[in-house]
Design goal:
Elements lengths: L7 H9 L5 E3 L2 H6 L11 H5 L6 E4 L3 H14 L3 E4 L16 E4 L6 E5 L2 E4 L5 H9 L3 E3 L11 H7 L6 H4 L10 E5 L7 E5 L15 E11 L3 E8 L2 H13 L5 E7 L19 E8 L3 H10 L3 E6 L1 H4 L10 H11 L3 E3 L2 E2 L7 H10 L3 E2 L1 E7 L2 E6 L2 E3 L3 H13 L3 E2 L17 H10 L11 H4 L3
Parallel strand pairs: 2-4, 3-4
Antiparallel strand pairs: 1-2, 5-6, 6-10, 7-10, 8-9, 8-10, 11-13, 11-14, 12-13, 12-18, 15-20, 16-19, 16-21, 17-20, 18-19
Helix pairs in contact: 1-4
Length: 452
């Protein structure tokens, strides 16, 4: 059975069964809690702008999640799970109305042990990091939205971020240890997934289970200094980024390379970064600053800003100018801009990066985020695109793919059409087991729609 838009009578009956739970029906709040940052995409905007949930439910415990799910199944109401709504592809936008299950108030940190934390999905990443650092540990990786993003949303809709230069991506074995999942059946169950089984629900946009608890690994905490390094030409900056990323003896957490004119969009640094420069934004352990400075000197870079960890802890940080915050700052100046998500192949000479940079010029402004994949540091990219037409955007994507770059398309809300490109059979089979009516986030999983 497929879900349909909820009817008023269903919603009244549904709400009557949720005694004690927070329910939101205010139209302005419904609109706000039905959205994320899909507005980065001019393709997604017309497809998602009018999508709204009919009611928001905010549970505070797993028992309340089960109470809400039981009612949703009884009345066959579509159910879309939401964290803080910091995703970029409409992951938490309800395509068929119904119920938005907002887990942002499930904020308990159950326990912290050396190297591991057990948390509820609504815990904000910044709050968790602050708590674990007290015992000498920190989150392995986090998005640039870490101040507001929740751990459940990051696992359900994200892929990597600051820290991925050392620890890879969420999908890499060992970066998620266990999850508790509530099923969407006539009699909801709680299932614990451990080991590789966690990837049945990780990065599935909440289409096949409701995560109510997670065990995540932690990393040794360092005092992270921040620096901006300016370079006179882009490829020197990019090659510095590659060599810095490959320098295993220098402890780092962020290697972000921005081609001119991207630095001009950073209002806070307009008097810091020389006009016309290309720059590297980095987080480096204070204990590694001396060899870092030597590497900067080798590549004729200029450190135009450097902050100690203590200084960096006050106010905004360089993290909030990297990854998709780079796009956010650019769009705050020019809302017509959009972006791509590209994975370049391993190549220490960065030949394909250079080819794309030369070919597109500032129509596709180069923004690299170095990550570790398969034991190697490679340049991922979140290029900023001067958008003109859907046809031209498709041409840009096709040119990248034809020359060997992998595009994780950020202009689709369908799970398999974005980064995966293929059907994840394990995720589909799990959905068949735990969501037999297809109520969870309908319209986002192509495999479910096309199943036989």
């Amino acid at each position: 059975m497929t879900s349909t838009t909820a009817q008023p009578a269903d919603l009244e009956s549904f709400s009557a069964e949720l005694t004690g739970l927070e329910i939101i029906t205010d139209p302005a709040q419904l609109t706000k809690l039905s959205q994320d940052y899909y507005t980065f995409s001019p393709i997604l905007q017309p497809l998602l702008n009018d999508k709204r949930g009919d009611v928001v439910v905010r549970p505070t415990t797993e028992a309340e999640v089960i109470q809400a799910v039981t009612a949703c199944v009884k009345w066959r109401l579509p159910l879309t799970v939401r964290g803080a709504g910091t995703g970029n592809y409409g992951q938490c936008v309800p395509l068929q109305g119904g119920v938005i299950l907002d887990l942002s108030k499930m904020q308990a940190v159950k326990w912290v042990k050396p190297g591991i934390a057990c948390v509820e999905p609504g815990v904000k990443l910044a709050a968790l990091d602050k708590e674990t650092r007290g015992s000498g540990w920190e989150i392995r990786m986090l998005p640039s939205t870490y101040r507001t993003a929740t751990i459940g949303g990051f696992i359900g809709g994200g892929s990597g971020g600051i820290g991925s230069i050392t620890y890879g991506q969420i999908r890499d074995r060992g970066n998620l240890l266990a999850v508790r999942v509530v099923t969407v059946e006539d009699e909801p169950r709680v299932i614990e997934l451990r080991g590789d089984d966690v990837y049945k629900v990780a990065h599935a946009y909440g289409t096949n289970g409701i995560i109510t608890e997670l065990e995540i690994p932690l990393a040794p905490a360092y005092a992270w200094a921040e620096a901006i390094v300016a370079f006179p030409d882009f490829m020197t900056a990019a090659r510095f980024g590659q060599v810095f990323s490959d320098s295993d003896g220098i402890i780092k957490k962020l290697v972000c390379i921005c081609a001119d004119p991207i630095p001009t969009y950073f209002a806070a640094f307009r008097n810091v970064i020389p006009v016309g420069s290309h720059c590297a934004l980095v987080l480096v352990a204070e204990s590694s600053l001396e060899p870092f400075a030597a590497l900067v000197n080798e590549y004729n870079g200029t450190i135009c800003l450097q902050k100690s960890a203590q200084e960096a802890s006050k106010g905004s940080t360089l993290v909030e100018y990297s990854w998709n915050h780079t796009t956010l700052h650019a769009r705050s100046v020019d809302p017509s801009l959009t972006y791509l998500q590209t994975m370049f192949p391993s190549d220490k000479e960065l030949k394909l990066v250079e080819r794309m940079y030369q070919h597109f010029g500032d129509e596709v402004m180069m923004h690299l985020e170095f990550i570790r994949m398969g034991g190697e540091a490679i340049p991922a990219a979140l290029q900023i695109v001067r958008y003109t037409t859907p046809e031209r955007l498709a041409e840009i994507i096709r040119y990248h793919e034809d020359h060997g770059a992998f595009i994780a398309n950020p202009h689709t809300f369908v799970l398999e059409d974005g980064g995966r490109k293929t059907v994840d059979v394990e995720q589909l089979r799990f959905k068949e087991r735990v969501d037999p009516y297809g109520l969870l986030n309908p319209g986002k999983m192509r495999a479910w729609a096309e199943r036989k």
